[in-house]
Design goal:
By secondary structure, this protein is an alpha/beta fold. The protein is 39% helix and 17% strand. The strands form 3 sheets. Strands 2-1-3-4-5-11 form a 6-stranded parallel beta sheet, sandwiched between helices. A 4-stranded parallel beta sheet has the order 7-6-8-9, with helices on both faces. A two-stranded antiparallel ribbon has the order 10-12. Helix 2 packs across helix 10 and helix 8 crosses helix 9. This is LacI family transcriptional regulator. Keywords: DNA-binding, Transcription, Transcription regulation.
Amino acid sequence: MAEVGFQPNTLARGLRGGRTGIVGVCFQELESPILARKVSLLQHALREFGYHALIELTNGDRELERAALRNFLSMQAEGAVLLGSMLTQEDTALTAWQGKPIIWVDPEKQVSGEQLSIDRPHSMRLVLDHLYGLGHRRFAVLGIDPGNPYGAFRWPAFEKHCRRLKIDIKKDAMQLFNPSQAVHNYDYGRELVERMLSSKKPLPTGIIALNDRVAIGAINRLLEAGLETPRDVSVVGYDNLDICDHMKPTLTTIDQCAERLMCQTAARLVELLADGNLSNAKSSRKLIKPKLIVRNSTAEPHS
């Protein structure tokens, strides 16, 4: 058969009761560089285990996500990974996923199934301790919306650690975000700094940004206003994108450890598939600790 170029059809083989080697992977949007990287890392990790990712992009549409799960079933997927899912266990039950493993990565809803998430509260502790240790006492938090599923983890953590460090949030912290903002990019960072500069409060000396692109937009707008980073304002991003090492100043940021997150996701899914008896499998929730990457965008406040 090899001589004539024949290759077995894995889907047909799955229909006859064999393994297809297919894993459904569903994620919300391509606009986020870190999310696109996570999908790429997961695809590579699954391939290392002998599985193929069937990828669906749902653009933040819950009904499209349900449809994606149904499509995975029709393609005889053996399991699924949902990144940043908007669904609940009730949704997955409606799509007849009983008996097949699902891994939830950074779910937006509270779920009790298998899940791995970045420890976002810990990232806020790392950032605030770093800036406080440098001598900063006035802060602006840019783009972190407590009404957003992920902001709901980070803003309360900021408040908690401000209390621990005896920082008066009402007096010495500014919270700037647009609840209707869908794209969290460079322009959004510029817009938020514009609002910060027009405030009657004293200028913060430390900025904590939603992500690296917001941080970079903030740095550029500060420079246009005659304020240099880190001489006048220190700035910390989030995601550790490649650009962080190639801008001036290089950007201090949080590394989500995406490779470790996705490798552990793939390994756990394969473990569940090998076990076969999901009814006896104990669900687990694992938090991946992020790392602070210190570069040149943070320094002691200028006196």
